[in-house]
Amino acid sequence: MEDIVLYEKEGDIGRITLNKPDQRNTIDLNVLKKLIEYFKLSAKNEDVCVIYAANGKHFTVGADLKYGYELLTTKNRLDEAVEFLESWQILTRAMMAHSGIIIVGYHGWVIGGGFEHTLACDIRIAASDTRIMLPEVGVGLFFSNASTKLLPRIIGETRAKELMILGKEITAEEALNIGLVNQLCPLASLDRILRKTANMIISKDHLALRYTKSFINENQDLNIESVLARESIAMITTGQSDEVRKRLEKFVKK
Predict the structure, then answer these.
(1) Smaller CB count within 10 Å for the chain: N or C?
(2) What is the DSSP letter of 239?
């Protein structure tokens, strides 16, 4: 039986891949557990960059609704239902806590929680066939993965309310226009672009990358004085490393 999620490490780059192509990469509790396990393992392995991708025609159509329906309608599976719902949130915690830069490659459908959990990624690259939809309100469910905070932060409250309340499908081009994704590419080029971006990231100073990710994620909720103080400490810390001296010397000589 093939693994439902794959993890591999090559140098400073980790790769986590959804691997249920025949089921459109639907997400159930087992998939969530594997994703949590591998993002934590990737963090432990100190991957400087993580490529998050999916095999098959679609990135993921989101939660396995048949599985979810069975959990909700079977009394003796209540504990599993609660664990399933909470595991979405645990996954976001694991992704946000990862010190490396996470880049996700969308293609095909990206629906509901299957999209919401990727808001914890740092860079989003979409193939031209990507379609994103948040149907929760229409079927009486609610959103997960801190998306009610992260999505407005990324695209603004007005756009976020439109996507969440109306639940309409948006194309890859529309996602780029509203700042939801960083880059579009042909489907055939997606893997190459992901690898190229990852290599570009790991070429940067690794300590500075960690500070950049954590400060952008955390400083939005701090006052200016707190941000200035944190930045001062980070500037001093990065400025003392031998790596910075080498990079500055190389830059000056150019």
Answers:
(1) N
(2) H
